[in-house]
Amino acid sequence: MTLSCKLIFIFLFLTYTLSLSGNLTIIILTFVDPHLKTPMYFFLKNFSLEISFTSAITPRYLYSIATGDNIITYKACIIQVFFTDLCRVSEFFLLTAMSYDYYVAICKPLHYVIIMSKRVCGILIICCRMAGLCVIIPPLSLGLNLKFCDSNMIHHFACDAFPLVKISCSDTWFVEWTVIICAVLTLNMTLTCVVLSYAYIIKTIFRFPSVQQRKKAFLTCSSHMIVISITYGTCIFIYMNPTAKEKMTINKGVSLLISSFSPTLNPFTYTLRNNQG
User: Fold this and answer.
1) What is the pTM of this model?
2) Nearest 5°: CA angle at 223, between 220 and 228?
3) What tens-digit pLDDT sequence spans the chain (277 residues)?
């Protein structure tokens, strides 16, 4: 194992361990602590299931680095693509639902308990998962029909849509644009809802008479805004490329950060918010 591989292995192992322990701690605490039965922590618990995304990628990659075994079967590759894309897309809809939760909490505090009932929260989570499934089914179905002739080497650390398209000998134009259109529609739709929620939130906050009230309200939303900025910024960078066959090296590095560092950062940002708020 070369020095660079050792450094990557150590970095990924540490970030994955921190991500796993941090997110599992949040999930366990929301189950056992009766004070954490509010809608905000219900959404945070579901958002912490993002460890499913990094768990579908990082352990297999760590194994490849440690053993030098870089071979993955076609079925295992497709399963990895399905779970990573489902978790990734569902995350955007979940962030949108969380934005709506903050909107109700700040803009309609007297009706918060009625609007964000346990039943409503459950329906929102189911809708987020189903929306993610509906988004990934069209491109995944098309991807299953791709043919691979000469090359069977994926130039990526995990199975993903664009690396698979790159090595296919089929006409991939329609698949590429289906992936891009689904990504753009998901990003635009969810980001529009998030922006609208925060526009009303900021408008309401500036109406608060007390500076202390405004500061507390901004601190309440700060962690969520940080996570939104990181999530949308990195994904827009990757999926707004004109074709899948360009900038693969840069995308590989950004994807590695998304799958390892971002899930590690989330528990700390939300813990910081709770300590301050």
Assistant:
1) 0.83
2) 125
3) 666 777 878 888 888 888 888 888 888 888 888 877 888 888 888 888 777 777 878 888 788 878 877 788 888 888 888 888 888 889 899 999 999 999 998 888 888 889 999 899 999 999 999 999 999 999 888 888 888 776 667 767 777 777 777 777 877 888 888 888 888 899 889 999 999 999 999 999 888 888 888 888 887 777 778 788 877 877 776 655 544 444 555 556 566 666 666 666 666 666 555 444 4
Terminal C-alpha separation, the chain = 46
